[in-house]
Structure formats: C-alpha cells, structure tokens
Design brief:
Elements lengths: L2 H9 L6 H14 L4 H10 L3 H27 L6 H12 L5 H18 L6 H15 L3 E2 L12 H7 L1 E2 L1 H14 L4 E4 L6 E5 L14 E6 L5 E3 L1 H11 L13 H19 L2 H13 L2
Parallel strand pairs: 1-2
Antiparallel strand pairs: 3-4, 4-5, 5-6
Length: 287
C-alpha cells in the first residue's frame, strides 16, 4: 500500500464535489481490507461528523465486497462447511466477530455429545441424549418472544443468548449431531425448518432417498420427534401442495440460502430496505 497516497485521499474525503468524493471512495475501496485500520485511525482522530460518516460507509463497502467474495468461494467449494457458512452470514452484521470464541463454544458441545454416545444406543436414544445436551445442559431454546428478529439468524448472537429461530437452532443441533457421528440432516420445510434422522448403518444411499428416514426432529420444540404424517398435516393446514423436498434432506448451501432469506424477511419487516438489497447481493453470491 502507498501510505502517503492513502493519507492524501482520506484528507480529501470532506470534499463537497460528489464526483471527487466518488473517485476518492473508489480508490480507497480498491485497496481492500488492508486499508481498514488506516481508515479506522482516521475516523478516531477526526472531529468532522460528515468525514466520519463517509469513512464508515467506505469501511462497510470494503467489508461487504470481501464478504461477497468469501461467500462465493464457500458456495462453490467442495466442502461447503455449514458452520463456516453461518459465520460468514453473521459477518454481514458483525464484521469483527471472533470465530475462535464460537468454535470453542461448539467444541465444548461436541465433546459433551461425543462422551455420551456409544454404539449400543438406538436412533431414538441418541436423539434423547442430544436433546439433553443441547436443551438441558447448554440451555438452547426457541425465541418465541421475538421470533422474526434478525438476531435469531446470527450464530454468534444465538450462541450467546441461547435463543434462536428454527433454522439457526437446527444448524447448531445438526453440527453437534454430525460431530458425534449421528446421521441427522436438514429438511427445508416451508414456514418451519426441521431435521431428519436417516438410517445409514447397513447400506448407505443418496441423501434424497426418503425411504431410509426413520423420523423427523423439531429443534424449535426441544427436539420433539415426529413422523411424515405430521408434515402432511402441517402442509394441509397451510394449504401448501406436497413436494418431495419438504420431506427429504437438503444441502448445506440450501440451508445458508434460507438463512439469507430469513434475514431479508426480518429486515423487510423492520423497514431496512437497504439491508434487504445487500442481502439480495449475498444471495446471488451463493448461486
């Protein structure tokens, strides 16, 4: 980086000519994340409210463009690690979140699940153990008071408050289950997100083979177990036609895309249309 040029550009950020400002802003954005600490120092030393506001906007644009890139790379990688995807979405609102803190919290939960599991447990017994660890020991539960709040979709906030929406609770529950070797998958049910337990012990098959699904799990209702017929009833109440995707496992990418849609809906209800537009761009980055 050319420190002298950056300092000169920052000093011109209070220029009233919009064309000049647009040119300066573009040049600073092109420096990428490395320029952020310099911008932050300039913000701290400035007493000009307009200058601070413009610096904040530039920092946000740099962080957002970097997030778009990272999400695109994640979406088109082979692994598409679920927790990594959830962390990227959380960085939209919390760009400085510390991933290590969240991973350490998850490690404690993974360890608790691993210590309690053994080969003698039935599928239902495994879920009972997971429910005890997730809901009783670690205290997670559905946020019924502020169901549509954006915070319910950010993994760092849910890890802190222990309250979330069906999808985020499912993501965390699923992560703990998979770490213990339990074949649990997400199911993209309309108006509600659930999980399924799939029998893969004897003859593993593709995850879209619904015939091997033993039962479904509702993390928003403390891990209640239910069968396919209850999904039938749920869809009938909503007057939604049955689709195979409402009963079968979905991919990690589909879960993260739904996480983005949940946030778009939350911010739309709050009137933050600028955030809705940005989230639409993040959605495009996953396609």
């Amino acid at each position: 980086m050319n420190k002298q040029e950056i300092d000169a550009l920052i000093r011109l950020l209070d220029d009233n000519d919009s064309e000049v400002f647009d040119h300066i802003q573009l040049k600073l954005i092109n420096y990428g994340k490395e320029v952020i600490p310099i911008l932050e120092n300039a913000w701290s030393s400035s007493l000009d409210a307009m200058m601070q506001e413009r610096i904040e906007a530039i920092i946000h644009k740099i962080q957002f463009e970097d997030l778009q890139h990272q999400l695109h790379v994640w979406s088109h990688s082979g692994s598409q690690e679920l927790i990594k995807g959830a962390l990227l979405i959380a960085r939209y609102q919390y760009p400085d979140l510390e991933e290590e803190v969240i991973q350490k919290q998850l490690d404690r939960m993974r360890k608790d699940a691993w210590l309690e599991m053994n080969d003698r447990l039935t599928a239902l017994e495994q879920i009972n153990v997971l429910n005890k660890i997730f809901f009783d020991i670690h205290g997670f539960g559905g946020n019924t008071t502020n169901y549509h709040a954006p915070q319910n979709s950010f993994i760092n906030v849910v890890m802190e408050t222990r309250k979330g929406n069906p999808l985020m609770l499912s993501i965390l529950y699923l992560e703990i289950a998979r770490s213990a070797g339990i074949p649990v998958y997400g199911v993209n049910l309309p108006e509600h997100f659930i999980l399924c337990y799939k029998d893969e012990l004897n003859d593993p098959v593709a995850i879209d083979d619904h015939s091997r699904i033993l039962f479904y799990i509702n993390p928003f209702s403390r891990g209640d177990v239910f069968q396919r017929k209850e999904i039938d009833s749920f869809l009938a109440q909503l007057k939604i036609r049955q689709e195979s995707s409402y009963y079968e496992p979905c991919t990690n990418k589909e879960m993260i895309q739904r996480l983005i849609r949940n946030l778009m809906n939350s911010y739309y209800k709050l009137g933050f249309l600028d955030k809705v537009e940005e989230l639409e761009k993040l959605m495009k980055a996953t396609i």
